[in-house]
Amino acid sequence: MFPWDVLGLAPTDDRKAIKKAYARLLRQHRPDSDPEGFKRVNEAYQAALILITQNNGQQVELDSETISNDHQEFQTKKSNDATNSLGAESKFQVDCHSVAEDLFTKTDELIKTKLKIRNDLQNWQFLHGFHDILELSFKEQVSKEMFKKVAELNHNELKTNGVLLIDRDVLILMNQIFDWDRNWQELNQLYPSTYFENTIDRTYVQSESNQIPKKHNFYKLAAFSLDMGAAALFTLFIFLKMPDDYPGYVIPVFLIIFSLMTGLTELSKYKTSLGKYTLGFRLTANGEQLASRFRILIRLMLFHGSAWCVYVSMVNGNIDMNFWFILSLVLMVSSLVIWVLKDKPLHDWLTGVTVAQIESN
Prior knowledge:
Number of helices: 19
Strand order of the largest sheet: 1-2
């Protein structure tokens, strides 16, 4: 019985369920490939909205007698009572322009929030309101404008901080709603290629396959060992050129070289140390985009802070139980515990940095 048979739903007054069914059917009946099917789905959607709103907020009668109008009866009613139908549509049909304005306003508000809030998919569910826009030409224009907006935001953020402002999971949701990949050729002609690379291309990146598997944590240790080895070789080269009167400075110089080598290279645009680069890894924010310099700087401070007790012991040859030594020791123990529980050390866990394979931008 129309419209529920078309929507594939039992009679209901749940607007959310109706919108979800409508969005699902739109993917099966596209206006370019199945105009008749699309028209029927669109009419069913409008009819369902009218049925539930005509009750003025009262519970919809769900018995078969109340909603047994078939498609032909609905069409006849529309044509015989054009004035009332237009009045109902003006009252209940969604204003396309106000919906679009609401989408862009809420998007602007959300991108200004904190990372955790911005990356929560639940906070982006308002984008499904895009399906309330029934005018096809205007709907396509809104899709293009949203694509342009998101692409520019990601492009500028990548250029400035090396990270995406709107991450992969949200991009996947947007692509499903706005159907960008279906119009990729047109979008690629309208906008620079970097726009396409920072939106649709990102939805095809499988970050899980790029991250280091848990059983391969020895890669991290191998990269660390390579960094230590490089610093040791550089230190050896320096002291081979110096008199034998400075053996006591070997360890301090080695620690300084190690800290500078790893720090400067990881803070560079490549976001990786020599050891990590050798193994094909970089510092990322979530396994798919390069981490910001701020995150890496905090990560370096936490790492060297937790290793301070080891540095002091190596230089002095004894343990001085002062405040800084104890604090460093606590950080080191905490890092080991977090590594066991979370499969990453404290400095990675607190900053959200992941060592992963990724192409540099």
